Amino acid sequence: MRAAWPRPAAQRVAALLPTAVSLLVVGVVWEAWIAVAGTPVYLVPAPSVVAVRMSVDPGYFLGQGAITLAEALGGFLLGTGVALSAATAMAHSLVLERALLPLAVLVKVTPIVAVAPLFVIWFGFGVMPKVLIAALITFFPALVNGVTGLRAVNPGALDFLRSVSASRREVFFRLRVPSAMPYLFAAFRVSIPLSVIGAVVGEWFSADRGLGAVIIVAHANLDTPTLFGAIFTLAVMGIGLSLAVSALERRILFWHESTFIV
To answer: Could you give the number of structural domains in the chain?
Structure first.
């Protein structure tokens, strides 16, 4: 007997299938182009060469990737935490918004490559500079979407809560936070890959570990298979984090129209 609805496992496979097919098509086209053009390995390696390099020492890429992942997640949590705290204050006060928003824009337009060396000078060569750079690059999307979401409340629901003498705390947690969740998850989908970029940029300036350091060393040695192996690891990391955020969004916002598939 045919089931009326697909099983959850089948739904997960169906959701991942388009991503897998697109990556496979890109890999096949890339491999064919290298074979036809006869491009040297030191310029652009074929995907098969990169796969062999990664399969020879998978622990190396996994270990370095874990370091970058930890730095990226630390920066994401720090950046979004500070951004949401500021967004909460700004959503309740136009004066604070006008005072803080120019500073946030200043942070946004400051080139990361200009700030990274300063962080190394100020905070040394440890984990802190990478976390701060990742936090810096994730701050602005969460701030803007947080302010917008906390203010995008249903006027009728707001009037109702005020009519029953609800406190500002109750209005915040029962109305403003649920209304802001779709906006926040939209910001998270943007910020989570940016945090990986921030961690890698930080590693370019102040690390002997992590995928950013792997890329720098491989580039200096013209070891393009290792370089592309690090890039592939970063790609898998970014795709995995984005899918995780999307899955969490569907789980939490199952009631919202943004998660409906038409």
So the answer is: 1
* Cα–Cα distance for residue pair 53/60, rounded to 1 Å: 10
Range(s) of the domain holding residue 253: 59-261
The reply to whether 87 falls in a domain is yes
What distance in Å separates the CA atoms of residue 183 and residue 146, rounded to the nearest whole number? 7
Torsion of CA 237, 189, 139, 105, to 10 degrees: 130
Residue 67 tokens, joined: 């370091």
Dihedral sign (CA 186, 187, 189, 190) = positive
Predicted TM-score of the model (pTM): 0.84
Q: What is the CATH number of the domain that holds 153?
A: 1.10.3720.10
**44 within domain boundaries:** no
> Is the distance from CB of 129 to CB of 119 less than 8 angstroms?
yes
Q: What tens digit of pLDDT does each residue of 151-188 get?
A: 888 777 777 777 777 778 878 888 888 888 899 999 99
